[in-house]
């Protein structure tokens, strides 16, 4: 996941806010610790481990380490912690992949222990609970058999920390452009320190990490002098401007969300297939747009739109009619499960939790998946770092999801820099391969937004430069075994091509 911090149901995708009472408590505290009072971070440490991938045993080295971030005067202003998995004795041609999650405010634990790392902990699916034992097991869908892996925790997440005061931290780290600059330098520094500049390099990012990935690739190409062989964007947040709000004029926010709502209904009926989704996607790009632009004053067009949207979403026809066929995410997640007194998750609308306040006019709880994943991922990662690796961090909490970072983030104006940098990075390098992967049911970063963007991309003279893969599941589709296996196979193809 996302992610993310991940997205809450009522806000801009890829940005999560805590419940209101939590938000108030966070605002009273300074999101920047006084790091001068904390013990120094330990020296890098490694352990030898073994896992089984695709039925074969693989020996590797797991390293937890840190890299400094320096300002223009050479002063260290932050320390970035990473977890790396490398296969000893491999040739210089062995690829290395750098992984980023999103938020902003999420550590890389989700891609690490959920998607592509050599070990995993269960989280994010229906039935998973915060009290489940946070025990790691071999990940059969790991990518470690075809690429080394480096998971990077941005400043303020995991154990990574700023050494500056609150204002300087926000300026230097908690904004879109500075974030890309220093994280690209971290990638470069890791490559130099580990003598891996000759290796093929790949970047993977999830959710807001999908915003980071193409921008980091372009920064590496054009500023750091490092070529990138491939990009993988998982449930990416690529076009903030298209979903930044409803002004009543643009059909885009409604278009982007509707197919994922329809996919969730089809999955509940056991009918979710690409073939069954194709006419829904076609409707969304054609008749839906025509009827939308006709406006509510055109009763024939509006009735036609309402009838179709009610059919696709499964929501009560009277409710859809009251909203003129414009179903927002919050309404879909609550009303679709109100009869069971449950709420759906924005990350996978078919993953539900009991609504603690079912009689309230407004939803008063945080996202079901977002609340459920924090305990297993935090406990499993801290146990791995401190007990398995023996990287002894004293006086520091591991921030898997930092609401403080998310609150402090300077979002600026919604921009299209990820798409712009993706276009330029591909144009610069005719050998670069790209995968954009989504889950059908994700409403935080819906697949249809990426589909529309890809359809507007140039051809670049080579077929299939950008692959759009859609899997059963939601934002973290990879937690489903079938989807995780299919995702691994699709990714392996661009590494071996």
TrEMBL record:
Compositionally biased intervals (Basic and acidic residues): 18-36
Keywords: Carboxypeptidase, Glycoprotein, Hydrolase, Protease, Signal
Gene3D superfamilies xref list: alpha/beta hydrolase
Name of protein: Carboxypeptidase C (Cathepsin A)
Alphabetized GO MF terms: serine-type carboxypeptidase activity
PANTHER family listed in its UniProt record: RETINOID-INDUCIBLE SERINE CARBOXYPEPTIDASE, SERINE PROTEASE FAMILY S10 SERINE CARBOXYPEPTIDASE
Chain segments carrying region Disordered: 14-48
One Pfam match: Peptidase_S10
InterPro entries: AB_hydrolase_fold, Peptidase_S10, Ser_caboxypep_ser_AS
An annotated GO BP: proteolysis
Species this chain originates from: Stakelama sediminis
